[in-house]
Fold this sequence. Notes:
- By secondary structure, the chain is mostly helical.
- It has helices spanning 5-27, 33-37, 41-47, 76-83, 96-107, 111-124, 166-173, 184-201, 209-226, 236-245, 263-276, 291-300, 303-309, 313-316.
- Helix content is 50%, strand content 0%.
- Helix 5 crosses helix 6 (111-124).
Amino acid sequence: xxxxxxxxxxxxxxxxxxxxxxxxxxxxxxxxxxxxxxxxxxxxxxxxxxxxxxxxxxxxxxxxxxxxxxxxxxxxxxxxxxxxxxxxxxxxxxxxxxxxxxxxxxxxxxxxxxxxxxxxxxxxxxxxxxxxxxxxxxxxxxxxxxxxxxxxxxxxxxxxxxxxxxxxxxxxxxxxxxxxxxxxxxxxxxxxxxxxxxxxxxxxxxxxxxxxxxxxxxxxxxxxxxxxxxxxxxxxxxxxxxxxxxxxxxxxxxxxxxxxxxxxxxxxxxxxxxxxxxxxxxxxxxxxxxxxxxxxxxxxxxxxxxxxxxxxxxxxxxx
Length: 319
């Protein structure tokens, strides 16, 4: 007699979580020693010393929203990091080494993710070869942070997609009413509701396989950084602080996870989100653990261009 289907599902889920823990622990810290030799000493030292800032770091409580002359992105996480000065408070001159240091210190983001998103940021800049970009460069439609059916921003068809839009956010967060913590199944339903709403109302709605992966990815990002990179459970008050105030909820008791958020960990959480979702995939599309990484590779034009954009950092990280 075979194992019942529901038991097989539990076994697969346990195996996935076990794999995820292993992947998260090593995914951002495996740096090629050979690759490091080709990097400047300060960059090599940076890649081997990443960690969240200590609790005594004054940036945790030194929060200020954007002021006149500052620029921000459609991403609440990047904006919060700027508001705390983990990355340049004015939102300008973002280099990949600066982002790697700031995202690790403020959110325990792995260098692999930051390098990928930083390369996409460089390509969104008016001067892609200049080595830096501003946060508002990331407002470029569908490349790659700004997209239709956002959790907290309006579609570009209706208005400027950069600032926080409370009615959109309330549609999403209402799915967690009565809960104290997030969970993957509820996040999947809320994400699908946003997708169907934009699809109905926006006559220029853009949503293909790439956008689906990125959309699941932004859900995985907040579930992981505000909560746990394995389970996706985060206190709702932490999530509201991030989105509604663009503030890291340090004073509410939040601390960065001891496990870094990496491309592999996000990829596995995306698989869990999609598996829990009522959303049908496009014919012939299958979302797997490498889909998130593959989308960023496609956006920047492949590993060779990624290596050129990052000055060899991506190669040292095995990307």
